[in-house]
Every structure is written in structure tokens, then in C-alpha cells.
Write a structure and sequence with these properties.
homodimer, 477 residues, alpha/beta, Rossmann fold, 6-stranded mixed sheet, 5-stranded parallel sheet, 17 helices, 17 strands, 41% helix
């Protein structure tokens, strides 16, 4: 199985946009402006017979009228014009045609499905590979391409394949705000020609890609997907959110991307056998991609937990055990170290460390975390910020920021993964909101993986530890 | 089984605070100031032999020195002073003693456990009921009492019993920001005398309480808890988060509130048989309390879903079916109404309604939602705001606010529950953050139940529908 040559898809040397528009509230405008704002290095050719220029680029009446070769054509024209566009492709040595154009097989209309098949045939004989139709296409900041002008510009190493366009936007926007930096993202819609399986095989060997995420509704080519997942998962973490698992979900997927979705259990088994990690929803997908991208691999499943009060400690312990982590007690050597500083706590303190019993002892959650990480007993850790405690006290802001700065240093200095839990900023107090947002942004800027609940932190650590610690993924339950 | 008379606990006529402090960073100060800031109507007596006044109230050297009867004494003194405090109670006709005082049985120390038992004995013979020890006590805005001065002042009808203090604070703060208004909240810590079972029997008949939530780590009196849950659940929705389900969780619970936690399955069965609704974590607890408090009961499990793009629609369908809701197709009468306005969509559009195919059709998600709610086919609904779509467009703020205002009107006017999904405000764009926060706050101000993901909305609707639509809760799986 050779690795497909999709480099040029993500790094085209020149781009034309068919159906480019002067209307700033249209996709045909967005694609052109995005190339401008992402600093695309090659020539950009808007195609529009009624405009002289669009977003600062000279416009051409047709693809044929462009006086040079074009690597990638982005099509925003109606479906009825696509065959004519394809006919012009060989004359400009077009390699890739991305069809944002939709209203094809996904409508359930027979004539539209016929047209889609004809598009596939004619593109094949013209030597043009198709991404889409009915997809938003490419986002690759390092290559200067994006399907929207308003997405983050920072380039990274997280690849993401999404059958859904709005899901791709959500994952990029939400993920970026949590510290995920994306490399190659493709929204492939109906997946008529270039399939997720093919792209996965490509990403497996792509040196720019460290982590792969995928949102899949269904595929015609199950075997190809399996091979692609296996190839990628053998070399890097691959996280897959399979949607359209249920009867209603599959029905909805068919009218969204013409996908034939399948039974949930079969998919779970297939993903496991391929070595991929399954996410059941977007939140899990993001939580797992974040963990895989920002945290080192767990050394083992023994987890150290600090920073919550009593209730949070109990909830943390539940969450860890229910996600396959072992909340092992403090080793006696560590307990003796506690005894030196705080004799009254030495036989009371446990794992999770209850933050509320430390008051006045000279020991802090951060200090305990350092001792636990250094003890050799633990393979990963969860640090609850416990912000509710700070927020009730005088000088809450200073205290919280001081503690979080130190925590970020500990996390960055640790060879073990430490997931930080900072709640969902649900408060009516505007000052507290701003403070929590600032603290979260500071963690993100330091590359710390932050989760909004201990359950989500434990899920991510547990699932990733499972996938990295157990060599044969087929033996997992 | 008579209903315990705990009215006076939540509405004391006079309160003394033993261990009241002039140090603004201490619980002994917080309790006094909270009474002031919550406008407690009766006399407040700080007890402190070294202060003349605390937070504006005249201080007394001892409980005995107070020149009047005292309904409730809040104790912030060390455990070693509690027996002496109890000895002074009969002289002031004290009915309730709340022991914030901890470091008793939860430490695992035998002498401390002995002292706790002696406290129980002497309080009983003094005719004093004890709340706690090792608990933050009471929050009841309508009665002017709160365990912290900085909590929301608005009084409501949601009662909450919490074994953990910081969990109680989190639930109040987070819940309030989502539109939950609390009535009687008690953090009972070790539960030495007044038990959650007794409080549940009281809340069952309390006309001020419409919804009951509880966070329980463990109870010595399982039968009493079961009877309390059954009494309350027979009259109002009761949602229970049982923590300390796992081995590690139970170990942690023992050192937190000296609770003997038990096997998860037994608890689930017990809760179901009592007619209570189980939450597995704080997020679920809040999501269910919010749904029970803000939404009417579902007429049936047929759910109408609108407002997402294609990917969100598929994910919504999965989430609904996996939570026991049925995503039934549009009735033909409704499809004909669509045909009148948008013939091309009539045979394509489905449930969930894919927002992205409506563009240019003259139909909107809100319009479809109204038609679906009026169709007689559905028993509940989920409305995705689909904010990622708006945020990418010019005039995003105006469009989003206009659509959300109309959605809020539809929700308020509907006899069926409509859960609104507005994402978690994860974006690096400060303007978008502010906009999403403003939109969320506006929904909350209108009493609309907002969930941060479609999975959470479907969970809350599905779980609450299950509990209200199936008469014998013991038949549920």
C-alpha cells in the first residue's frame, strides 16, 4: 500500500476559486479572502465573469481564461456548472478540484445523484482528483489555505479529517482556544473521490502531523478506512468520533453527506482493531486530541490526584477508577515526608489529597503534587485547581494566579502527564468570570491541558493511557 | 412517619456564632457577615471574648452571656470546646447547633471519634439537634442565612442537600449562573444527628420546595434515607448524585465525611426504587436540576430537533436516541406546509432539521421549531443555537441576538419542554466570547434551560422524561 501523494493538495502552488463573489456574506468571497488573510504564497485567481477584482485579486471570466497553470480549483458554483468546469481543468493542469458545491447525492434526489456520479467519471478521465463535494475543503495554516478567513492562523501538528463542515469549524475554534494547534484539516463532505482512508494513509507518513483526529459519519469504502486507520495508528495517536451510530443518526447522516452509516458496535470493534481511540462525541474528541497533543504518555495507570476539597476528592476518585485509573495510596516514604512537616496530617491525608485539610499545615496542593510526581509511585496525575475555594477568599485573584503559575511550572517540568481541572466558569460574578478566563488562557498559553471537570480529565488520561500502555489494542474491552 | 419540624432550622429567629472572628479571612467572620449581607431579620450574636463587635454586631464573651434566647448556634470553635458550648445551650433555649467544627471522626483518629459520639450524647440530653459536624451548614436566602457572604441572594424553590461543603458552594454558584434559584440548602458533613433522610422527609412536605437535589457520599442510616427519598420523590422531582461509588471513592469519602459509602449498583437500584433520578456527577446533577426546575414535563419521548448544521444534526440524533428519546420524522402535514414555502426542501428536510439547507428558503430554524411544536407529533424539543454559523457571518451579533430573542419567546410560550443548546464559549476571539456570554445570560434571565452540548440536553430531557412518563420507576432499566 503506497502512501498517496496528497502533499500538493494541502500545499498547492496556485489556487483558483470558481464562483468567487464580491458579496462579503458568501462562501465565494470567503475562500478568496481566506487565501489573502492566511498569506497564501502563490497566485490566487478568482473566477467571476462580472467582476474585475475580488478581495484584491484580479478576477478572470473562466478557468480557461487564467494565463497559467492552476494546482487547486475551489468550486462554489452551482452543481449544474461543475461538468463544464471539469472540462476546463486539463487545459490548466489542474490537479485537485475541491467542490464546496453541494445539493448532489445528499439531497436524496436521483437526478442529483446521477450528476454526482458523472462528475466522478469525468474528473477521473480529466486526471483531476476531487475533494468533496458538499464539503468546506481545506484548512492548513502552514500552507496558507483556509475555508474561512476568520479561523486561527497559528500552524500546528494536529490533523483533523471531518465529514461535516460546521463540525470542522467548531473543532478548530474550540480546540484552538484550548491550545490545540492544527496542521492539515480537511472537510471532505460526500467523499466522492479522495476518501478519509486515503488521507489517513497520507497522514500516517506526514512528518508535519503528530496527532490525527477524525469525524466520520459513514464511508462507502470500509476496508480502505480500516487500512488507513491502521497505518496512521501504528505511528501516531488517532482519535475517531464516529457519528450516525443510531437509527436516527444514520438517517440524518444520509441526508447530510449521503453517508451510509453503520451499527455502533461494529464501528467500535473496527476502531479498536485498527488501534484507533474512539470518541463518542465532539467533547470527547477534543478532550482526547488535547491530551494526545499536549501531554506526554502515562508511565502507568497509577494516578496522583490533588487540589480538590473533600467532595471533589471523592468525585475525583470515582472518576479515575471509572476510567481505568488506579488511585493508589501514598507510598510510606512520602507519608513520612508529610509527617516531618505536618504530623497531624500524616495518617489522615490520602490520595486524592484533600486540599481543605491542608490549611495551616505548611503543605500545599502544589507541594504535594511535586512530592507525588517525584515519588516513583505514579504514572500520571490530575491537579484540581479548586478555584471555588480561592474565589471566596480575600485577594482571590493574586492567590489563584500565584498558585496556577506554580502549577503550570510543575506540569511543564514533569515527564508524566498532568491534567489540570479548572471548572466551566459558571458564575454570575463578572470579576470571577474574567479571573477564571485569564487563568485558563494563561494555562493554555503555557501548553497545559485544561479540562472543565475531573470526569473529563480522568476520561482523557484513562483512555489515552489504555491505548498507549496496552500493546495489543484488540485485547481491550 | 411524621414530617420532622425543621422549619425553624432554616428560619431561625435568632442566631449566635461561636468562634466569631474579626479576621475577614476566616469562617468565623464569614458566618456573621453573611447574616448581615443576607438581611437576617432577627438578632445576631457573635461570640468572642476578645472582641466588642464583629461585622457591626455586638459581640458576647460566651453563649451564656447573651441576654436572650437563641434558636440556632453556629459553631466555628475547635472540637475541644464543643462540649462546653453544648452545656450552655439549655440556658438559652437553643434548638439547633450547627457544627462547622470538624477534625472529628473524619480524621480516622479514635479519640476524635469518641469525642464526636460524646457530642451526640450530650446534645441529645440537652435537647439540641445537631447539623454537622464538619459541614458548612445552611444557605437559605429567604430566611436570611448563608454559609458565605458572597453567594447569590435571590431566593428560589430548589432545595439541595450536600454532604460536601465545597460541592454545595459549586452547585449554588454554577447552578445560579444557569438560572437555578435555590431555596433550602444544607451541607450536613458527617451527618451525626440530623440526617439527609430526615431532611428529605421535611422537604417532601415543604411548600417552598419544588425540586430536590442531593449529593450523598454515604449514610449510616440507609433505611431512613430510602424512606426520605421515597417520600420526597412521590411529590417532587428528586435528583441524587451518589459519590464514593468506587473503592477509591469510598476510601476518600471515609476521610472526608467519615461516610461509609457502598457499591454503585446497590445505590442505583435503591435510588430507582425510591423514585429518585440518579446523577453520576455534578454536571449531570446540575443539568437534571435545571431541567426539572425550568422545563415543563415532556408529553412523550418524541423529540423535535432544530438548529444545527448537518454534522450537529447527526450528532443530535445520536445523542437523543442514546438517551431514550425518539427522533421521529416530520409528520406529512408538516412536510406539506414546508412544500408551500420551499418546494425543493420538502422531501429532503428531516428531523433533526439541518439548519444549513434552509439558507435562502424563507424558512428558519425558529419557524420550523414552531411548526413542529404545534404539530401534535412531538412531546419535547431541542433547539441548537448553532452559534458557529452566526459567528462567521457579518453582523453576527445582531443576527444571533435576534434569533435567540425569538427562540426564547418560543421556549417561554411552549407547553412542551424545549432545551436550548449553546456551546461552551470556547474561542480565542474576545468579541465572540463576550457575545456568547451575553446571549447565554439573556436566556438565563428569561428562565430558559441552556445546555453546553446537545448530548447534555438530550441526557436531561431523556432522563427527566423517563422519570415522569413511566409510572412504576422500578420497571426502568
Amino acid at each position: 500500500m503506497t502512501r498517496p501523494d496528497l502533499d500538493r493538495l494541502f500545499r498547492p502552488q496556485s489556487v483558483a476559486v470558481a464562483g468567487a463573489s464580491t458579496n462579503v456574506d458568501s462562501a465565494g468571497h470567503d475562500y478568496v479572502r481566506a487565501l489573502k488573510e492566511f498569506g497564501f504564497a502563490g497566485p490566487v485567481y478568482p473566477i467571476n465573469p462580472r467582476a474585475d477584482e475580488i478581495a484584491g485579486f484580479r478576477a478572470y471570466p473562466s478557468l480557461s481564461a487564467i494565463p497559467a497553470d492552476v494546482d487547486l480549483v475551489i468550486s462554489c458554483i452551482p452543481a449544474s456548472g461543475v461538468l463544464d468546469l471539469i472540462a476546463q481543468c486539463p487545459g490548466r493542469n489542474v490537479r485537485f478540484l475541491h467542490l464546496f458545491t453541494g445539493r448532489l447525492s445528499e439531497t436524496g434526489d436521483e437526478a442529483a445523484a446521477d450528476l454526482e456520479r458523472e462528475i466522478a467519471r469525468q474528473a477521473a478521465s480529466a486526471g483531476v482528483r476531487i475533494l468533496g463535494p458538499n464539503g468546506m475543503g481545506l484548512y492548513h495554516p502552514a500552507g496558507g489555505v483556509s475555508f474561512r478567513p476568520d479561523l486561527p492562523r497559528e500552524a500546528g501538528t494536529v490533523a483533523f479529517l471531518s465529514q461535516s463542515g460546521n463540525n470542522a469549524v467548531e473543532v478548530i475554534v474550540r480546540g484552538s482556544s484550548r491550545g490545540l494547534h492544527f496542521g492539515k484539516v480537511a472537510n471532505y463532505g460526500n467523499g466522492l473521490d479522495i476518501t478519509p482512508g486515503e488521507m489517513l494513509r497520507y497522514l500516517a507518513g506526514d512528518p508535519e502531523t503528530a496527532v490525527v483526529g477524525a469525524y466520520i459519519e459513514g464511508v462507502p469504502d470500509g476496508r480502505g478506512l480500516f487500512e488507513g486507520l491502521k497505518a496512521a495508528a501504528a505511528r501516531k495517536p488517532v482519535i475517531v468520533h464516529k457519528a450516525g451510530r443510531t437509527r436516527a443518526g444514520a438517517r440524518s447522516a444520509a441526508s447530510h453527506t449521503a453517508a451510509i452509516a453503520g451499527a455502533a458496535d461494529l464501528w467500535s470493534t473496527m476502531l479498536r482493531q485498527a488501534g484507533a481511540i474512539e470518541a463518542r462525541n465532539q467533547e470527547q474528541l477534543l478532550d482526547l486530541m488535547l491530551g494526545a497533543s499536549l501531554m506526554p504518555t502515562a508511565r502507568n495507570r497509577h494516578v496522583a490526584v490533588v487540589g480538590g476539597g473533600g467532595g471533589r476528592s471523592v468525585q475525583s476518585a470515582d472518576a479515575c477508577e471509572e476510567n481505568g485509573l488506579e488511585v493508589v495510596p501514598l507510598p510510606s516514604s512520602l507519608r513520612e515526608k508529610v509527617r516531618e512537616k505536618a504530623p497531624a496530617l500524616a495518617d489522615w491525608i490520602g490520595n486524592p489529597v484533600d486540599q481543605s485539610i491542608l490549611a495551616g499545615s505548611g503543605l500545599s496542593s502544589n507541594g504535594l503534587l511535586e512530592l507525588m510526581l517525584a515519588s516513583g509511585e505514579y504514572g500520571c496525575a490530575i491537579a484540581n485547581v479548586g478555584e471555588d475555594w480561592f474565589l471566596g477568599r480575600p485577594d482571590a485573584g493574586d492567590r489563584l494566579q500565584h498558585a496556577c503559575n506554580r502549577l503550570a511550572d510543575i506540569v511543564k517540568g514533569s515527564p508524566l502527564p498532568v491534567a489540570v481541572v479548572l471548572g466551566p466558569t459558571e458564575t454570575t460574578n463578572a470579576e470571577h468570570r474574567a479571573l477564571l478566563d485569564a487563568v485558563r488562557d494563561a494555562f493554555v498559553a503555557e501548553g497545559v491541558a485544561v479540562y472543565a471537570s475531573v470526569e473529563r480529565a480522568a476520561f482523557a488520561l484513562g483512555r489515552l493511557a489504555n491505548s498507549s500502555l496496552l500493546p495489543p489494542p484488540s485485547s481491550l474491552t
